[in-house]
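Hey, can you fold this one?
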Amino acid sequence: MRKNYGGTSWYLPMPIVFVSTYDEEGRANVMVAAWSGIYDCEHVYLSLEMGHKTTHNLLLNRSFTLGFASKHLVGACEYVGRVSGYEDVDKFHKAGFTATPSTIVYAPLIEESPLCLECCLVSCENGIVIGKILNTSADERVLDEEGLPDLSKMDLGSFTVCKNISPFFLKMSHIISISFSSGYLFAFFSPLS
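Sure. Predicted structure:
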């Protein structure tokens, strides 16, 4: 027997990513996004409001980076999710991020993020952004013995719009922290050992 919920957005877990760009003055800008994913083996997609400063910047420069959010970035996640880049041009640094210029695209990398994708803009129509992944880089602290990213070392956050966190996730993980921003729930999970 199954229970129907109608058309929900329960595509779980959804990673929380930081979308980073440079503005017209060359200042690092960042926003938090959860409506994102892999489009195919070489591309990512994002669903962004056209009015965001970050959307303006990525259309201007045709490039961006995606940094995955881990538990130690929950405060930064909440901050960049609440503050507009139009209101605060220094929110990247106020969030506590260190900007490292990408050598692949014209966009900053977030040093504190365990995994980053460097992307060029392919298209943006009605807020649906498609980017081509040109490079992926990982913090050496999250690599395994073979030099590959180890998911268990990343403590990545997950985004949900559910009113209650699923008992499935409670059984599968420890909730590290929960943050509420703009009516959405950001839950950071750590797998059980």
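The longest helix spans residues 53-61. Let me know if you want another pass with a different chain boundary.
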